[in-house]
Specification:
The chain is mainly α. It has a domain of about 35 residues. It is elongated.
């Protein structure tokens, strides 16, 4: 499989597949240096909660049809946005 254009995507999976099938040296003239990070990594934060509160949050998440991590992430992001 060969193509003469670099993919225009932010999908890590698509980019990985593209570079599995292509050689970087074939595209040297199209490459440019960037100063800022291209992909931003997320940081995992762990918290400990009493069982009663953890069970309550689990129940709330289930009621909303989302997982606990998503619910807590939404709460934290909401708080950060209102505090900024």
């Amino acid at each position: 499989m060969s193509t003469n254009k670099l993919p225009q995507t932010d999908s890590i999976q698509e980019l990985a597949k593209f570079w599995d099938d292509h050689d970087l040296t074939d595209f040297e003239s199209e490459l440019e240096q960037v100063a800022e990070p291209v992909f931003e990594r997320e940081t995992e934060v762990r918290i400990q909660l009493p069982s009663k509160e953890a069970d309550t949050i689990q129940s709330m998440a289930k009621t909303q049809g989302i997982d606990v991590e998503t619910l807590i992430r939404e709460w934290v992001l909401e708080k950060v946005q209102t505090s900024a």
